[in-house]
Write a structure and sequence with these properties.
This protein is of the alpha+beta class. The protein is 59% helix and 19% strand. The protein has helices at residues 2-5, 26-32, 36-43, 47-50, 55-70, 117-174, 179-210; strands at residues 9-14, 21-24, 75-82, 90-103, 106-115. Strands 2-1-5-4-3 form a five-stranded antiparallel sheet. Strand 1 and strand 2 form a beta hairpin.
Length: 217
């Protein structure tokens, strides 16, 4: 059959409390790790029996199907895990339809489902990368705001110290005939220059630390 080659599971169920399987293709049974006969012997074709150790998943499935039925929808769509007899859990996209048929007065449901384990893994990786990108963009924005304040404050400090040095230089030139006063101005210029250099070096260190860079002395 074409649908077997496409790796789609197909199953027909009673809409009862067990979601009893009336029929399913080989691929559907294969997802559980059991053959058709093995599944019947072990679980009597009852889906709730299969999920006995995972009642939370069965309750979720039941609520999705029953909610769709109450709202008179044509069908339902949800994702659910299947734990095979051996191996890792497989995630399925479950697409069901209320057929309008009945069997001994019980409504019938048709299911078509397929493995989306790799899709979920890729989606999770994409979500993680998206979150990482968002955090990085937020960090860049914070860095941008910090840098704006940083440059503004540094500019004010450098401008003030440059004015002091410039003023002292003018005084020193005018005091060439007064050696003591000239020497005092030159010493003050030296001190202020060192303060300026220290300020710039400190600012550079702070900037590189904020940017996550290695500071070189």
């Amino acid at each position: 059959m074409i649908i077997e080659g496409m790796h789609f599971g197909v199953s027909k169920h009673l809409f009862d409390k067990h979601f009893t399987i009336l029929w399913a293709n080989d691929y559907a049974y294969g997802l559980t790790g059991y053959t058709k006969d093995e599944f019947y012997v072990k679980y009597r074709n009852r889906v709730d029996e299969y999920y006995r150790k995972d009642s939370e998943t069965f309750d979720y499935m039941s609520s999705e199907i029953e909610e769709a039925w109450k709202k008179q929808k044509e069908g339902y769509l949800f994702e659910c895990p299947v734990k095979p007899k051996r191996g890792k859990t497989v995630w399925l996209a479950m697409n069901g339809r209320f057929s309008g048929e009945t069997y001994r007065g019980v409504p019938l449901i048709w299911n078509v489902f397929y493995d989306i384990t790799d899709i979920r893994r890729s989606r999770k990786e994409l979500e993680e990368k998206s979150e990482l990108l968002i955090r990085e963009l937020q960090r860049v924005e914070q860095m941008k705001q910090w840098l704006t304040c940083f440059v503004s404050e540094l500019n004010e400090d450098v401008h003030s110290m440059a004015n002091i040095i410039g003023g002292l230089s003018d005084v020193a030139v005018l005091s060439l005939n007064d050696p003591k006063r000239c020497e005092a101005c030159l010493k003050e210029i030296t001190v202020t220059s060192r303060q300026l250099r220290k300020k710039v070096c400190g600012a550079s260190r702070n900037f590189q630390q904020e940017a996550g860079l290695e500071y070189e002395v």
